[in-house]
Amino acid sequence: MAFQASHATRLLARVTIALVAVIHFSPSAFGQEPSTTQGPEKPPQESELEELKARVKQLERTVGEIEKKEEEAAAPLSPGTSTEVPAIDRERGMFRNDAYGEPRLNNAPFDPSLRGFFLIPHTSSMMKIGGYIRTDAIYDFADLGNRNQFRPSTIPTPNLKTNNYNMSVRASRLSLETRTNTSLDVVRTYIEVDFVGPGDSVALRIRHFWVQLKNVLVGQAWSTFSDSDVIPETADFNGPNGWIFQFNPQVRYTYALSKKDNLMISAEQPDAGIPTTTPSGQPVTSTNPMPDFVVRYRHETDDYHLNTAAVFRSIGGVDTTTAQSSHVFGYGVMGSGLFRLQGKDNFVFQLVYGQGITRYFNDTGTLDLDAGFTSAGALVAQPAYGGHASIQHWWNDQWRSNLTIGYVKVNTTDLSPANTYDKSQYFDGNLMYSPGDRFTIGGGLIWGQRVDKNNVMGEGYRINLVLQYDLEALQQDLKKLTPF
Question: Do residues 122 and 53 share a domain?
């Protein structure tokens, strides 16, 4: 209808122009011969001609504006940058789509075709609504502590032998992305929420809320100390115990060293976890005199990428009775990578070591084990290390499998209680089926084990079935299907 209306407007304008031309060159149309009278006043015919000419010019401008708008509407959407996300990062079968929310160098689009984007009327911005609807059916062969997410740190020690069945939609997500081409650079904003509220609630939780311009990011995003491109595809929503899982409010800058190498630096929310009382029983409140500082280096190609990062922290608190504060230095180093094996088969890993960094591990983030007190009453950063590894195999274009293992170990002080978390292990094996661009059906067997400082152990198995419908269909680059 819009096309027909604009076409009719152009036709009317051109007919009007033609009539004016006839009037202009045929003065007899007014019923009089051209006047040869000289004088300051213009004949009525000439005034009418000038008025008609002005109207014609206005119609011509209107037609030009309509044609310009039609050309702009017909033009393909542009991401505003020639930088692309490497093919290997886009080819992995990841129904969780965690890597999509990662801030990219030059705001490179994860999907080069920009499917799902639409222009916002009367603006220079485009928008996309994304996310997915997910339902998990969960059966536990023992009490695992958390009936919605498989978290080894919550497994009771010793075990409680009781079976349990549960269904959940908490892992479902909604996202909103905008891209705007400005005179400075492309601006990308990204907002993402899920329904993992406190306890068993389905209250909204903000995951991402950030804006990036000229590689300067402000807002809440994946911590720069993490690598979202090595998050494995697990049947369980929570993922392995040993990967770095942290959304942090931050200010980040990314600098391109070359086409394949970039460097990131950030200042992020600290939030250290320490004991709530001193050895003498005095209450302690955690304080953070400085942000967590992170530096990360990334090398990427279409067939693999490697990351290494370091975080530096100040950990401590204040004795609320004596008003004395104590802080110690904490640090962590991380190495991660993604490698193409054959076709779309791939291998990912992440290894982490540090002191005072348990906050960043997926399994220990809420246990307040960043620091502990010695028998002399001194506060020290507690060593921790761990990681995960995963391999993904594609049986064909619709079927794929994943095997994932994880491990975390925390060396706590002598004054830590006997039932303090010491280490945990994780395993997930699954089979996923994608009959179409937006559907995923699958399931997996998950095993986890927690061991306390006194060597008391708890472990359990879970069967996790999942059905998911994506609100968007991300393009997968299939041009690289041969081993490198």
Answer: no
